[in-house]
Amino acid sequence: LLYRLRHGDDGLVEEVDGEWHIQEQLTPERVRALVPDALEAVVRGRIEALDDDTRAILEQAALVGVEFDVDVLDGAVEDAARVERAMAVMEEARLIRPVNEEVDRYRFWSALVPPVVRRMLSERPEVEVRPVHRAVVNGMLRAYRGDRRRRRALGIAEHLREAGEFALSVPFTLAGCERLLHLQLPDRARLQLAEIRDRIDGPEVEEEQRATFHFLYGMACEATGHLEEGFEALTRFVESTDPARADPRNLPRAYARLSRIHQARGEYDRARYCFGVATQLLEDLGDLHSVAFLQDSMAELAFEQGLLNAARGHLQAAETLARRAGNEGALVRTAVL
Predict the structure, then answer these.
(1) d(CA 290, CA 282)
(2) DSSP letters along 133-172, please?
(3) Which value, in Å, is the radius of gyration of the alpha carbons in the chain?
(4) Residue 183: what are its φ and ψ, rounded to 5°?
(5) Which residues does 174 contact at the CB level (< 8 Å), separation at least 6?
(6) How far apart are CA 337 and CA 328, in angstroms?
(7) Whole-number Å distance between alpha carbons of 33 and 115
């Protein structure tokens, strides 16, 4: 088995300091596809052999991931002595090992543990599992602040949904997807947002959050070539957004993307209208730099479609605006587009 895993197409196993380690964080389905029932039974048996308190804390750690911070468990359990005892038992049982002792970060010896724990939890009544996810959320919120929390926003959102707290999960999903778009990962953002699309119009979701969802989903769809979905979402955003309450930069970004979608569909009059709205909104903000980028982006799109005169016009406008904005160097695209 180890030979097949190590040398097969997936290359999931490697040897480090004489120990075998499965490198991929496997889903329960992937575990069952790759690993014989006997090996899963071994992992399950070692977990079931723990005392109830240690096993409960291990479940919370496993829901965090293959690696976890002790601070999260302290926040989830709210009893540092219990956590310290459980960690000692798990380490002695060779279930976990320290990764970074300076920040009290640990890793499961086997990446099989988290998916096996999730499978075990799935066999229990939902009413028993939800408090486990809620405790993990409490631990993550107590342990992480600022950028550390933003980096884990999607994980927090997932646990809130598993805890039956969909409304509370929405702002974390939105924050996590906004970060993915900033990192130029629109595919991942679109997939995350698609998971909550069917419930976003529910009464438990605030109107402002719903508008932000449509903005982010539309941006992600347009960036990944799903133009019809992007058009629908961005149209809902601009039609439902109160300019006085919205992020002032989101409206021009939405109109800029709508202009690109219309131009890609050959709807040039509508493209020019949306382009004009985006340009005016940016000029009202005094953001000539972003207007220049918008002109440059439209020039590229026009060139791709063989509209050479339009492309030249946009480029000339971009160069003029760049000089006015004090940036006479090469135009570099930013997150505004």
Answers:
(1) 7
(2) HHHHHHHHHHH--HHHHHHTHHHHHHHHHHTT-HHHHHHH
(3) 25
(4) -85, 10
(5) 209, 212, 213, 216
(6) 19
(7) 13
Residues whose CB falls within 8 Å of the CB of residue 213, separated by 6 or more in sequence, listed in order: 170, 174, 193, 196, 200, 205
Element (H, E) at 108: strand 105-108
Distance of CA 28 to the CA centre of its chain: 21
Whether the Cβ atoms of residue 275 and residue 256 lie closer than 8 Å to each other: yes
From first to last of its 337 residues, the chain has per-residue pLDDT tens of 444 454 444 555 555 555 555 555 555 566 556 555 667 788 888 899 999 999 999 999 999 999 999 999 999 999 999 999 999 999 999 899 999 767 789 999 888 899 999 999 999 888 789 999 999 999 999 999 999 999 999 999 999 999 999 999 999 999 999 999 999 999 999 999 999 999 999 999 999 999 999 999 999 999 999 999 999 999 999 998 776 677 788 999 999 899 989 988 888 889 889 988 888 888 888 777 777 777 777 787 777 777 788 888 878 877 777 777 665 444 444 333 3
**DSSP notation for 5-18:** HHHSSS--EEEETT
- What is d(CA 61, CA 113) in angstroms, rounded to the nearest whole number? 10
Give the three-state DSSP class for 180.
Answer: helix
Beta-bridge partner residues of 105: 69, 100
Whole-prediction pTM = 0.76
- As a whole number of angstroms, the distance between CA 212 and CA 200 comes to 11
Distance CA 294, CA 255 (A): 11
Written as six digits, the tokens of 149 are 């929390």
CA distances from 100 to 85, 104, 139 (A): 19, 6, 19
**Locate tokens 């505004």: which residue?**
336
Rounded-to-integer distance, Cα 230 and Cα 261, Å: 8
Rounded to whole angstroms, the Cα distance separating 219 from 186 reads 8
Q: Which residue has the tokens 């496993």?
A: 62
CB 291 within 8 A of CB 321: yes
